[in-house]
């Protein structure tokens, strides 16, 4: 059961996605540099080949983890578009979108996954995904979906029904923006808090002083507007920030 979002103070697998107009239109031809973030080499290779054949001779780079993707961006600059796997070795759930959205404001990020649960799609879209597509999507539908996203439309699987509407949807998006203000170290600490780790355990795992952990936790609580650890965990769970492994 999904915890209701409070403002801080699945369609059939492989079905062709439904499309809802959103951002101002741009040309898909402007997307020349694409970053694929997926830890499965065959999936990366297949996607890269499909993109090169379907869209022409574009630059397609790959990363096997969220950390590797951030290093790619730091070293080679921002791509024109990102295709991001939902579950990575170092990020599961909406965390990848939240982190990359902070790094790449304005760059269309497509979440790709076999998980077509409504709650997960809603969380990814609220976190800033331009679209969410199934890994089982056929080549033509995949290419069409990416083209539409790169032209500014929000794409979701056919049959998807947003869990939130109106003020609740706005609150979910605002919560994602708050999580996006966390530093990488603070995100790690929040993940460990959600795993039930005590400050001493977090200190040992991250090789930092317990006093430093407490300082980070104070900053986390302030940024996401939570008063207690349990509230922080509930907010992270509501945003589907960290999915179980």
In short:
Helices cover 47% and strands 15% of the residues. The protein has 245 residues and is α/β, with parallel strands linked by helices. It has a five-stranded parallel β-sheet, sandwiched between helices.
* Spatial strand sequence of the major β-sheet: 3-2-4-7-8
CATH architect. name of the largest domain? 3-Layer(aba) Sandwich
* CA gyration radius, whole angstroms: 18 Å
Helical stretch tally = 10
GO molecular function: DNA binding
Pfam family, one: GerE
Modified residues (4-aspartylphosphate): 85
Domain HTH luxR-type: 175-240
Describe the structure.
By secondary structure, this protein is α/β, with parallel strands linked by helices. The chain has two domains: 28-151, Rossmann fold (3-Layer(aba) Sandwich), CATH 3.40.50.2300; 167-239, Arc Repressor Mutant, subunit A (Orthogonal Bundle). It is 47% helix and 15% strand. The chain has ten helices and nine strands. It has helices at residues 41-55, 66-76, 95-103, 118-127, 139-150, 167-179, 184-194, 199-206, 210-224, 229-238, and strands at residues 18-21, 33-37, 59-63, 81-85, 87-88, 91-92, 109-113, 131-134, 153-156. The strands form three sheets. It has a five-stranded parallel beta sheet with strand order 3-2-4-7-8, with helices on both faces. A two-stranded antiparallel sheet has the order 1-9. Strands 5-6 form a two-stranded antiparallel ribbon. Mean pLDDT is 85; it is low at 1-24.
